[in-house]
Design goal:
about 450 residues; Na+/H+ antiporter like fold; two-stranded antiparallel sheet; 2 strands; globular; Na/H_antiporter_dom_sf
Length: about 450
Amino acid sequence: MTRTRPRCLLFGVLPWPERQAVSEALRTETVGGLVLLGAALVALAWANSPWSAAYEQVRDARFGIPALGLNLSVGHWTADGLLAVFFLVAGIELKRELVVGELRTPATAALPVAAALCGMAVPAALYVLTATAGGGSLEGWAVPMATDIAFALAVLAVISTHLPASLRAFLLTLAVVDDLGAILVIAVFFTSALNFWALGAAVSGLVVFYLLQRFRVHGWWWYAPLGITAWALMYTSGVHATVAGVAMGLILRTTRDEGEESSPAARTAHLLRPVSAGVAVPLFALFAAGVGVSLGALTHVFTDPEPLGVVIGLVVGKILGIFLGTYLAARFTRAQLNPELAWGDVFGLAALAGIGFTVALLIGELAFPGGAEAEYVKAAVLTGSVLAAVPAAVILRRRNRVYRRLCEVEDLDEDADGIPDIYQAGRGAGGAGAGREAR
């Protein structure tokens, strides 16, 4: 009797082990960032190909429930709908940082918070100065404020073999605060005429969501319909619908009760992170990054005041804001830089934060809802993100070589206890502080 191998169907359901492997891969920043980069490249290639008309037809095709005011284009569904999943995961990360992470105490939160605030204020100020000097519109002041956490962490993960783990923690905390600032900007400054009945109903739904968490009600069948309803009502109210995703992420409980293997927030993030990294953000990038890239378009990026302000804000503003904000906080307050880090690391991280892809594109769409200027601003976001990523990669690779040499020296200093002497107080070249001075 011969055994036949099961057929593998194209676009069929993956076998369970493969599905688990794909999900775990998408939970890493490296893979998620690469998927995002791939979607952006496909969008650019498609929008600049002979089939660009088909791209526009797919992006602008509308479907939904007209009776509920949800007859949206594919592009709007990805921006207003799928990105709510991304912001839900971001809200969970923020809640975790506030409860058990770097933001739980003022002493540890001071530097990344100062860096994030200055990293939002300086790019916005540079945009305003550039736009004012060129007689341009100030509507896009918030575009260069945002840092793309997926792209930035992906670049750091690719480079980071010897870089200290505290560098990633600093970037994650900074990006979480940055995301919160972007959410507040979207909610306050990019809200259309409010429908107070819908807004009140959305808030009521979020209150019910909180009460279900408060009274330890379990079961996705309670939360999924309630979350979708709150999202739809938030959209109808005129407030950007992604705010509902953030609110639910902040409401989810991050502490474990007795008998629980993980908290509701951790379980939700574990389930939704592959959806966010593998579906929501790449599809948004696919329909947001498709801009015509030509010599004429690039000329507008560096000559029109609005896109030029975006590029300057991302490339120059982020470096100045984050580095100077961190330095001034460490110089004039009780806050201290993590002993594992040197100022060269902070400078490289500040350059890396200039990658503003996802949220910057979203704010750009809200600030410039149509026309040629909207396309130029999108091109400016892409250009500024690339121009920020290149020096960041160069700087951090150099820092990585420094740490690799330190590791080689530490390996030579190991003795019988298996612990490098550099980490033992009073031994080696002056104890643990010597490594930092060598940097």
